[in-house]
Amino acid sequence: xxxxxxxxxxxxxxxxxxxxxxxxxxxxxxxxxxxxxxxxxxxxxxxxxxxxxxxxxxxxxxxxxxxxxxxxxxxxxxxxxxxxxxxxxxxxxxxxxxxxxxxxxxxxxxxxxxxxxxxxxxxxxxxxxxxxxxxxxxxxxxxxxxxxxxxxxxxxxxxxxxxxxxxxxxxxxxxxxxxxxxxxxxxxxxxxxxxxxxxxxxxxxxxxxxxxxxxxxxxxxxxxxxxxxxxxxxxxxxxxxxxxxxxxxxxxxxxxxxxxxxxxxxxxxxxxxxxxxxxxxx
Length: 282
What we know:
about 280 residues; alpha/beta; Spore Coat Polysaccharide Biosynthesis Protein SpsA, Chain A; 2 domains; 8-stranded mixed sheet; 8 strands; globular
């Protein structure tokens, strides 16, 4: 019964058939060690490589598995992308805690064991982080965050990676420069004070998820930055927790166009905030 589901795991996926089988197997195996029911909400982004079929093959093994398709999303035909998939998954998920993770298991599902204890301490949002070695509660100290962000950019330029990066296999200099430069822009333009806004391993209480994702407007990769801006606006209790993160992707996916889109999203979030888009609906 849905009332018994404690954790919902939303997995947005597009053309990751070669990796999603391992991800679902990892969830299946680790969830057997947990003392509560776990639900998987798999949201397929119109994949052409059989990703959805791979997920379908787990229906006999997973007690709680929803498979949603992009063409079935109620949020409109032009609202597509990772953010749209996560928003849809959050709306359909039944758990008391709702999280999303990447389909390629960049952060393995077992890292959830580091996340869940913080909900017992009263946190509304718990973020996996690749740029802190210890739990880091969110603060309103933008100046301190600015100094730290500038320091990270210079470290990437000098050493090739930020010294605060905790990943075993470091990303290339270009990807880290874009990551840390983007984080600096989030601090300056959005008043963010987080070390890692884009790690694809975040969890929310059911109440926080409804408040935040109901107000989400961005369908693409900028959605999690938007969610954090809204969370801070409503003074939700947030903490970043270090998690293991692995990345075999190459720098070839980094383009000037994608970077420009990220900066445009920052200004859109800023405008939405100033114009009252993130105020509760009447």
